[in-house]
Specification:
Chain lengths: 436, 144
């Protein structure tokens, strides 16, 4: 198999060399972090007053974890190290409440993130002769734009199709001879189920590859996708807090994802104790971003569960491989690639006086796609007797939820007192989707 | 003005029965009923012997229900009369949300219960009377 490297020196650097790069970059990130309101309080409290207080990579573990909650409490600018005039881009992702998490990129940061994305794309054997149809949403979500920039850097022709409108997507694939898709696995399966309806055969398309991500999925789902479309599907991993989809990517061997260790320090911990677990053992993925200075983020608790492979990869890259995401340590739902916390839904419902405080969140499959149903109870005293009132209320709830979670759920209104009453949060969620 | 009891019911087996059962327990007589189907829920609309009592009792049970003013129009049970009534309302620019009817005495009298949009702001009652129909109030409706 032909192995092509975007940056051979870095991608195949020996582990000692990688550690040196990490240490040097970590010190530099510490210098930036000390300029932020958040870390300038937190770092001195653990004895880190300057980059020189980091003597070795082991000193990283002096730094407390940063959580999504820290980001929420310090929203919007508590982790910003530069004046906004130095910032060229922001992205956000869903927070556990209506407050999103935001990241800031300077021109240099964006350049570095783009380079890592380009490296990821190139590692799959994709090159400038390819045509990428980017079917992730653009906008505040990192998945669309960050992939777009990386693909342009490799020199691909990029079709910024974004999500939705399956008929047009298929038409674009046909008309422009798309060779690579960037897409969520469930949407890709949905596209396949629609081909016949538009009288298009897989053989009418020029597809060779798909980058699938933003949703956890199994090896079986990958195989199914590969068989249905006769393509290679590459798993990608990223999160907006870490600049989006290029954190880890599969190489041509498709045996889990090289995590770019010159750009990110990865630790796998026991989520209960915070202790490191050895390679090969499952735990929570903790990431330190080494390439973003406008908004430093160190030892970030991703809440994703995965493990690192011990064995090296035949592609000769020295960057360790991260397994597929095996689960979450929190109750975040991923619905058609969109991250949603039940608490976000709760927050919206509690502000609507016409419904009771009891609710249920149901997620199910409709074909290959996910469907979110939010069930609430009508508050009996406000009912005026008209269907129009009920229909307007349902529309209002759906609109307000869409404003918070970005996708529009189906809203079901129930009679007062019929939904099950729960103490805890998790049981309010009924996820009946079979595992992908 | 006649009162109709509107009850929000979700579309699942047994819900209507719960309502009728509760009303039966307190001796309420259901004179007429209709169900407006809205997909995943429905509105049960009842003409009952004691609307206020029925409303209080269901509200106590936690039901989402409301008393609504409706036009209860007495119509001679003969061909063309409903058409004439609807024509008068249409000519008056009065919008009907929902309606149901029942025959009280075959070939003699029928009742049409009409829900009017923004009833209080319209002259619907006058329009109907002017067209030659009787509009029944609560007591008249109950004493039929
Ligand atoms: Zn490899």
């Amino acid at each position: 198999m032909e192995i092509r490297y975007w940056n051979k020196e870095i991608e195949t650097a020996d582990r000692e060399k990688l550690r040196q790069i990490q240490l040097q970059r970590l010190k530099s990130i510490i210098a930036s972090a000390l300029k932020t309101p958040f870390y300038s309080r937190r770092l001195p409290s653990v004895g880190i007053h300057s980059p020189d207080d980091i003597k070795s990579l082991d000193d990283l573990r002096k730094i407390p974890f940063t959580t999504k909650d820290d980001l929420r409490q310090n929203y919007p600018k508590g982790l910003l190290s530069v004046d906004t005039s130095e910032v060229v881009r922001i992205h956000t992702s869903s927070g556990t409440t209506g407050v999103p998490t935001v990241i800031y990129l300077s021109a240099k940061d964006l350049d570095a993130a783009t380079d890592i994305m380009a490296r990821s794309i190139y590692a799959t054997g994709t090159d400038k002769t390819d045509i990428l149809q980017n079917m992730m949403s653009y906008g505040l979500f990192t998945g669309g734009l960050c992939m777009h920039y990386g693909a342009e850097r490799v020199g691909l022709m990029v079709i910024p199709a974004a999500g939705g409108n399956t008929k047009r997507q298929i038409q674009l694939m046909k008309d422009f001879r798309t060779t690579v898709l960037h897409i969520t696995p469930s949407y890709l399966l949905h596209v396949h189920s629609k081909l016949a309806e538009y009288s298009v055969a897989v053989s009418d398309l020029a597809l060779k590859k798909a980058f699938v991500g933003a949703e956890p999925h199994s090896e079986n789902t990958r195989r199914k996708i590969e068989d249905l479309f006769d393509i290679d599907a590459y798993n990608s991993y990223g999160l907006s807090e870490m600049n989006g989809p290029g954190v880890a990517f599969e190489c041509v061997y498709k045996t889990d994802l090289h995590l770019w260790e010159d750009a990110y320090i990865v630790e796998i911990i026991n989520p209960k104790t915070g202790e490191l677990v050895p390679d090969g053992k499952e735990g929570e993925v903790i990431l330190t971003n080494l390439i973003r200075h406008a908004m430093p983020l160190m030892r970030y608790r991703t809440r994703d569960l995965a493990f690192l492979h011990k064995e090296s990869c035949p592609c000769k890259r020295t960057h360790r491989r991260l397994s597929r995401i095996l689960g979450r340590t929190d109750d975040m739902l991923i619905i058609n690639g969109v991250n949603i916390f039940p608490s976000q839904i709760e927050e919206v419902i509690m502000k609507i006086p016409e419904v009771g405080t009891n609710y249920q969140i149901c997620v199910e499959k409709q074909g290959a796609l996910d469907r979110l149903i939010v069930k609430v109870e009508l508050y009996s005293k406000i009912f005026m007797g008209e269907a129009k009132q009920i229909d307007n209320l349902k529309a209002k709830i759906a609109d307000e939820l869409k404003a918070s979670i970005t996708l529009k759920p189906a809203v079901e209104l129930h009679e007062p007192g019929v939904l099950p009453v729960f103490e805890g949060k998790a049981v309010r969620v009924v996820d009946s989707r079979p595992k992908l | 003005m006649a009162k109709q009891l509107h009850i929000f019911v979700e579309n699942k087996p047994g819900r209507l029965k719960t309502i009728t059962e509760s009303l039966q327990k307190i001796g309420i007589n259901i004179r007429a009923f209709a169900i407006q189907d809205r997909g995943d829920y429905g509105l049960m609309k009842l003409i009952v012997s004691d609307p206020r009592q029925a409303h209080l009792s269901l509200a106590d049970m936690g039901c989402a229900c409301a008393l609504k003013d409706v036009l209860a129009v007495s119509i001679p049970d003969r061909p063309g009369n409903l058409h004439r009534l609807l024509g008068a309302l249409a000519d008056g620019g009065i919008n009907i949300i929902d309606a149901h009817g029942f025959v009280l005495q075959p070939n003699k009298q029928g009742i049409c219960v009409i829900e009017i949009e923004n009833l209080a702001q319209t002259n619907a009652e006058q329009v109907v009377r002017k067209a030659g129909f009787d509009v029944l109030d609560d007591d008249q409706l109950n004493n039929l």
